[in-house]
Amino acid sequence: MLPELEKIKGVPPSAIILRELKKSAIELEQFLKDTALSLQSLDQITPKISNVLAQKFGTTPDYFLKLQEYYNKKLALNKLPKPKPDVSKISRILFWDTNFDQIDWIKSKKAVVRRVFERGSPQEKEVILTFYGKEEVIKLLNELHQKLTNESLKNLPEYSIPITFRSIQSVNSHLYIS
Fold first, then answer.
1. What is the pLDDT of residue 149?
2. Does pLDDT of 146 surpass 80?
């Protein structure tokens, strides 16, 4: 059975088709012969192809067409320039475990805020506060309930960030928030 569209938005239709064929133990070549489709046509679904696929997989005629539309929207969004902070003021070594140029600053904001407020300089923290906004940073830091060093906690008042924690335990010069 095909997955719900909401769960697979942005997935290429050909990937869903290939997955379903594999689950059904149907060879791709045989499927293409049976449906009179070409392999290239699976990469760009048209209404006619959507109807053929719907009959073969027992779904609504617009299922694969909608899936193609979601995928096209995702491709278009990926081509747009993504907003990012003033990276010239952020040390690349702060994100040593990832490719700095490929950080998605919007999707990874929780990890970025955590990393910068754990290990960043005051200038880097200021850049992050400016980029995400004070309210968003406060919200993320409250959500994280993370392990913060004493130094990190000392720096927070410098930025006038009111953070409330449920309970704080000191263990080996680290504060654990639960």
1. 47
2. no
